[in-house]
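Backbones bend. To wit:
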Amino acid sequence: MKGIRDIFRRYLSGSCTSEELEYLFTYFREDDPEERLLEQLDAELHQEGSEEVPSDELHDLVNRNGYRLKEKIQRRSSFRYTAWTFAAAALILTSMALWFWTGRSKSLVSQSCQVEGEAFGMPAVSIVTDDGERIDLSSEQSGILVGGVTPMRYADGSPIEGVANDSIGLDRVFELVTRRGATYQITLSDGTQVWLNALSRLSYPQRFGGTSREVMLQGEAYFVVAQDQDRPFIVKTWGQRVAVLGTEFNISAYEDEGSIRTTLVTGSVKVAAENTRASSKDRTVFLRPGEQSILSGGELTTAQVDPLKEAAWRGGRFYFENRPIGSVMKQLARWYDIEVIYEKGSEEIRFSGSISRHGEIEEVLKSLALTKTIQFRKAGRRITVMP
């Protein structure tokens, strides 16, 4: 394993490995974090001093990487870090970046330790077992299969590292988790296929038993449900329950949106609102293809929509249909890991249109600004929305 300073440098250059990041986080959560940070700061400044003034590009790099690193160290540690600890960490990152700026090319410095679907150098998708163990999945794979001779494996049949298939009980429950900027697909034991959007969670059993097939969803997912006339497929979210026998549909159930949208592509589904004061008659709707139910404020309504547009994320696009800027920016935040601030007067603006999710955040903001109804100011990962 390389020294801690070398790992910092590799982190800023975008070439660090998962093993090196794990070592970095472990290093700062052991003993006294302030002392360790100051030791690194002192060593770097005395050896790599420079009088050159870093550019705005470099400042942006340091701010972006510094935030991510501090966030990860804090989340993975039991320490209650002080403001001084974080300030010291930022200074170390700045000194490391200065070393790169004076000793390497600008093209190397401008890289960040992030690829699409794998933010902060951390695995983009994981499985969480019912006893709390986390199994990180390869970003080189598109999905996993559940059931069969090998109870859990990648879609191409290769084994999942860290999974002991001979110890997976049929009654165990797992959770598939996607982070910001990631999507993933899972084929359940009954043959049902599920595509999970960014920042989502799907809880599912190793094998469906009893008279129904039940999963739980947080976030957004697209379902292609295998036919089983004797056992309905049920999707539970934070405010509703969807029951089907075999069909295709999309559910968007992010809690920060304040509403749940269920869009039917083929077949039929029964949507039932839960924990609402509405009458029993108004708590349930049956959807036909091209219809969408919206559960908001305890009220369940329906509307005609284009299902392909509602599930455009599967094709790598954002799609907005008269959406308020707050909803638009929440979608962008789940994909690009940005922090959004609104200036007074910007909250009422709405958008319609489609934008690729494969471009940089700057490209998306430029496209939105072409409407001449809104402006954006970017500072690191912080985006300010202005009328």
In short: Residues 83-103 form the longest helix (21 residues). The chain has four domains: 4-109, 118-209, 213-219+226-303, 316-386.
